[in-house]
Amino acid sequence: MNAFPQCLDRRQFLATAGAASLAWWSTTQVRAASFKTKIRKAKIIANPEEGLLRDLKAAGFDGVEVGTIMNEERAKRARELIEGAGLKVHSVLRGWAEFNHDDPAKVDASREVSELALRTAHWLGAEAVLMVPCRVGGGRAGTPGADLNIPQPWEFDIDFDEKTGHVSRVVKGDNAPFARYIAAQNKATDSSKEQVRKLIPLAEQLNVIIALENVWNNLWVRPNLYKNFVGSFNHPFVKAYYDVGNHVKYLVPVHEWIRTLGPLIKKIHIKDYALAPDNHSGKFVHLRDGSIDWPKMRQALEDIGYNGWITVEDNGLPLPEFADRLDKIIAGV
């Protein structure tokens, strides 16, 4: 059905469309002005290239998260190139560590990579390193409980010890089928705490924060449990790197995660996830095309006083489109 009257001529149509566009812009500006927190936009890049950096700046991005660990010479060249483009490196993506591996040599090697990531961040002028301490399940050789029986995302009902972070229950009712998973999770918690604590002195020396991310690693899948894990370090150089898209499948609203984690959040990754109608499956989609309530997410960031970066972890759209979608999220619309 035609949404406009048959008698609406071209001039009237353009005037109407222009007024609607102006009204949206005005509402967005008023909404954005009502927030006191300042959010800056970033994109993950593997390697800094002059053309890409120029395009990011032109699209309205403020900075980047570098996804490559480098030696000092290469990092200093990269920093010069990035800052020369008018951008800032705010974080380095270290990614997956293996702090719970059965082989101690693997654990040591993983910690050494993490140390180099911290040094890379220092050389690049970044304030944090994204680190996923470990994972369980998923069939990875050497990972404790590679063949674990793990509850479905919607089945989790977790009880844990506030002092140790050890889980005693992961579902309501009989937990015997998940006994090995519970044991693997508790081992992962203990080993991750041990290895992260070993990294803290270097993080202090370099003035780089260890930002722990939870990324479909079958661990700490509820906000209060994740808060307990990150908060257990009780250290200003260990914080949370919260990814809004990674937690949608667990059916806890994003704004609840944010309010629970509160000041522990140092960084935010942005992507979207669309739940299926039955909430028992889903898929990653482009920003604002999925199940996240972005206005509530933005309000939650305001409520916890988050002043910092949101980094889009998504590809497949033009950079100006990503920037525009981020601007809408920042404006709370």
Set out the fold topology.
Elements: H1 10-33, E1 39-45, H2 50-59, E2 63-66, H3 72-84, E3 88-96, H4 104-124, E4 128-132, E5 159-160, E6 167-169, H5 179-206, E7 209-213, H6 223-231, E8 238-243, H7 254-261, E9 265-270, E10 272-275, E11 282-285, H8 294-303, E12 308-312, H9 319-331
Parallel strand pairs: 1-2, 1-12, 2-3, 3-4, 4-7, 7-8, 8-9, 9-12
Antiparallel strand pairs: 5-6, 10-11
Helix pairs in contact: 2-9, 3-4, 4-5, 6-7, 7-8
Give a short summary of the structure.
With 333 residues, the chain is an alpha/beta fold. The chain has helices at residues 10-33, 50-59, 72-84, 104-124, 179-206, 223-231, 254-261, 294-303, 319-331, and strands at residues 39-45, 63-66, 88-96, 128-132, 159-160, 167-169, 209-213, 238-243, 265-270, 272-275, 282-285, 308-312.
CATH superfamily: Divalent-metal-dependent TIM barrel enzymes
Q: Rounded to an integer, what's the Rg over CA atoms?
A: 22 Å
The top level CATH class name? Alpha Beta
Structural class, by secondary structure, is: alpha/beta
Return the average pLDDT rounded to an integer.
90
Q: Per the principal axes of the C-alpha atoms, what is the gross shape?
A: globular
The total number of structural domains is 1
CATH topology, anyone? TIM Barrel
Please list the strands of the largest sheet in the order they lie side by side.
Answer: 1-2-3-4-7-8-9-12
CATH 2nd-level architecture: Alpha-Beta Barrel
The description of the largest β-sheet is: 8 strands, parallel, barrel
Question: What low-confidence regions span 5 or more consecutive residues with pLDDT below 50?
Answer: 1-21, 23-27
